[in-house]
Amino acid sequence: MGTSTSAVRNAFLWSMSAIYLLAFSSLYVQIPGLYGRSGLLPASRMLQLDGKTPHERFSERPTLLWLTPTLGLTAEHGMDLLCLAGMLVALVAVVSEVMRDVPAFLMLWVLYFSLYQVGQTFLWFQWDILLLEAGFLAVLAAPMNPMKWLLPSPLPHDAVALWLVRWLLFRLMFASGVVKLTSMCPTWWGLTALNYHYESQCIPTPLAWFAHQLPEWFQKLSVVATYVIEIPIPLLFFAPVRSLRIFSFYAQVVLQVLIILSGNYNFFNLLTLTLCLALLDDKHLSYLFPWIRVSPEASLSGSTEKTTWQRFQAVLTRVTETLVYAGLFYWTCVLFTLRLSGFTVQSRIGFTSDQFHSALTRVMPVTIWLGVISLSCHIGAALVRSFSSEEGVRGRVLMCIRCLLFSAVAVFMFTVSLVPHTVIDWQANNNLWPIVKHWNQRLDKFQLVNSYGLFRRMTGVGGRPEVIVEGSNSLHQGWKEYDFLYKPGNVKVAPPVVAPHQPRLDWQLWFAALGSYGHNPWFVNMAHRLLHGDRHVLALMAADPFHGKPPKYIRATLYHYHFTEFAKNSSAWWRRERQGEYLPPLQKDDPSLIKFLTHHNLLMEGKASVKKPKGMLGWVLKWLRGMLGSMSGLMLQVTLVVTGLVASWVQPIMAKVV
């Protein structure tokens, strides 16, 4: 069996470089409207000096943006600089293998973390913290490679770094499955969640409309498949049988691809697929992607004649596979009471919430011990490789010491990750040692280990809540809707395909519709900016219905949206029902509006801390903003990724010519 993972490590690092490139470029085009001094949530409000020393400021909010005044830059232009630097480093790492090293990934992590610190609600998504955690693991997995003219050599402990990636993937998927049941959401317990998911998700794709039309029995069966893929199958990530790990890989890939086809979840699904690479070895990776260069050990693996012991292992593997697959099928049928009814498969959950919570309490310690045993085996194998990969006593001792130091870091990361891992079960969490919780708390602000839980509760059961913003020059007539770039508005406009770009305003409007404007001060600020005709905020929308002459009044109305039905043969994609007022009509000089924005520190114009960028660097940033800022997020992403791919393919050809 192939056990080499050097190509997998390089594929993981390349993919992480591409994900960073997508993340930085997506955010860059939105900075003026979101974080500029007249943006919805000005970044400068998070960087108030307040008489604090530099050490106090960095301790409270660790970000490179504290240094922007020394460069003669505003907070907005500082964010531009960090995004452009991240795009440049990520693009170079995509193109050149020798640049995928510790300094590059450490720089990428620091840049994104610095942006996250001032990003406020527009950067507080699960995929942002997942990128930070995965990005830190990329730092651990990357080689030092001080000699840039040579390709990095594989190290004995590379497999341990990839194991940490696998453990992150396990925590992400297992928790995402468990929280659907611990939330006690009736749609997840009734297997009807997908009846509402496709139309109620943040930004559906056109295929979501078709998926919504599928019969209910199929939707329920799809929920069952989701549970199986997210809860029991992730346990196979640590199986000693290679084929079971590969099976779990394809199960996750199928789920992520289906999500990509039906929903615009920016770079999140691509990042999850990147984590899935840790389930493979070089042999299978080269099978999937024949152009990937692998070691001779991996490519020749399995080509020699098998011994009696190898034949016995093969038989044992087949028996284990059969038992696992049969067990998965049997218990799926039992726990979800699957039965054939004509040409359909009927299903319902066959256990109670008490039974589930009792089983979870028993399973959580098993997952921890499974991680302990699996990590110990990987560390032991790495130590053996450290001893055998070097010649001479001195070389072996140094390599073993290096491997032990890295293993200590891996054990520490695994241990502190148990705190977020066990939040889904209070008993397992209470059983953790206090010292573990203490260290997790100390690292908490760096987002190195986090808890996850996607689609915990299904929203939009009675209809997808959607806020429609309108403007008018009269309170009694002439109201015109503001169409946003991607979120539902006009019922005849098809859902877009925008991933891997994340339009953060459109996303946050989805969350705002679930609450009230009082809990979303940025929404009131958006109305204020529209009353002033702010061009940066208008750039986040599809069009200005008032053509540069801002209206006298702005209001917002709450609607419930539903996908139209296939049988009714409508030309519209949506139908909607008015629910009531979301935001009352406002004028730009309304005293209550000014008081509200002042209370939330959202009026940054005219403050002494606000200055224009100075010097050559400020001029370059403004010039680049003029060149790149007019592009859509998706177009900028495509341009950069295609540039990176073309440069990657041309580079070896040019090297041969030279």
Describe the secondary structure blueprint for this structure.
Layout (H helix, E strand, L loop, with lengths): L5 H23 L2 H5 L18 H7 L14 H21 L6 H18 L6 H16 L16 H25 L3 H4 L4 H7 L5 H7 L3 H15 L11 H21 L5 H9 L5 H7 L7 H4 L8 H28 L3 E3 L2 E3 L6 H37 L3 H29 L4 H5 L3 H10 L20 E9 L7 E2 L22 H10 L7 H11 L3 H4 L14 E11 L10 E13 L4 H9 L15 H14 L4 H25 L1
Antiparallel strand pairs: 1-2, 3-4, 3-5, 5-6
Helix pairs in contact: 1-4, 1-6, 1-13, 1-26, 4-5, 4-26, 5-6, 6-7, 7-11, 7-17, 7-18, 9-10, 12-13, 17-18, 18-20
Share of helical residues:
55-70%
Which class best fits the helix and strand makeup?
Answer: alpha+beta
Give the rounded overall mean pLDDT. 92
**Anisotropy-based shape:** globular
Describe the main β-sheet briefly. Answer: 4 strands, antiparallel
Question: What is the strand arrangement across the widest sheet?
Answer: 4-3-5-6
**Tally of DSSP β-strands:** 6
Task: List the total number of helices.
Answer: 26
Instruction: Quote the beta fraction.
Output: 5-15%
Radius of gyration, CA atoms, in whole angstroms: 27 Å
Q: Segments where pLDDT lies below 50 for 5+ residues?
A: none
The rounded distance between the terminal residues' Cα atoms is 39 Å
